[in-house]
Specification:
Length: 202
C-alpha cells in the first residue's frame, strides 16, 4: 500500500495540483461539498469533456491532506514525504507518517501557497477546503514560518549552499537525513526554479 500511495501522490496528486493552479481561470466555482467517494459520479468521457467539476471535487478532498501531521509540519511550515492511511477507514495513521521530505515536495508546496496568496480559487480549495476565504492568510503564515526554517537550516548547514538535501522533519527544525549529509538531489532542487519561473510568467 505504501508503494501504491507514493506512486499515486507523485504521478497523480502533485501533477493535478500543479496544472490546476497554473491553468485556473477567473470562472466562479460552486462552494458545494462533494461526497467522499465522488469519482464514480464521473465517467472518463465526463472528465475529458469538462474536467473543471472533477478537479473542483478532487481538490476539496485532497485539501484534507494539507493539515498538520499529515501533509506538513505546522511547527516549521515544512512538508512531509507522505503518510499511510488505514485501508479500511481512510484515516491517517500517525505511526505511518513519513517524517522526512525533499525540495521536490517543497517546490509544489510553495507553488500552491503562492497561488493562494494571489487569490487563486483552486489553490484556496486545496489549502483551506472548509473555509476557502482564509486561504491567503493561511498561506502567508505558512510561508513566513517556512522561510524562517529555511534561513535556520542555511545558517546551521552552510555547506549545502542554499540547496536542500532529503531532510528529517520533526519539531521546529530540519536536518539532513542520515544518508544525505554530504550531497543534494539535483532533480528535486531543480523543481524549485522551474516553479518560480512558472509563477513569474503567470
Amino acid at each position: 500500500m505504501e508503494t501504491a500511495y507514493k506512486v499515486y501522490r507523485t504521478c497523480i496528486l502533485y501533477p493535478t495540483l500543479f496544472f490546476s493552479c497554473v491553468l485556473s481561470t477567473t470562472q466562479g466555482y460552486s462552494p458545494h461539498t462533494p461526497k467522499c467517494r465522488f469519482s464514480p459520479s464521473y465517467s472518463v468521457q465526463d472528465v475529458l469533456a469538462n474536467s473543471e467539476e472533477f478537479v473542483w471535487d478532487l481538490l476539496y478532498w485532497e485539501g484534507n491532506f494539507h493539515q498538520n501531521n499529515v501533509g506538513y509540519n505546522s511547527a516549521n511550515g515544512m512538508t512531509y514525504d507522505g503518510t499511510l492511511l488505514d485501508p479500511t477507514s481512510g484515516i491517517a495513521n500517525l505511526a505511518g507518517l513519513h517524517q522526512f521530505s525533499a525540495a521536490s515536495k517543497e517546490s509544489i508546496h510553495i507553488m500552491i501557497l503562492a497561488h493562494a496568496v494571489a487569490g487563486d480559487p483552486l489553490a484556496a480549495r486545496f489549502l483551506s477546503p472548509h473555509v476557502p476565504h482564509d486561504a491567503p492568510r493561511i498561506a502567508v503564515e505558512i510561508l513566513e514560518t517556512k522561510l524562517q526554517t529555511y534561513l535556520k537550516f542555511n545558517e546551521t548547514f552552510p555547506g549545502f549552499g542554499g540547496f536542500l538535501p532529503w531532510f528529517a522533519n520533526s519539531g521546529t527544525a530540519i536536518q539532513p537525513t542520515w544518508d544525505w549529509v554530504n550531497r543534494v538531489p539535483a532533480l528535486d532542487n531543480g523543481y524549485v526554479p522551474l516553479i518560480e519561473n512558472r509563477i513569474n510568467i503567470n
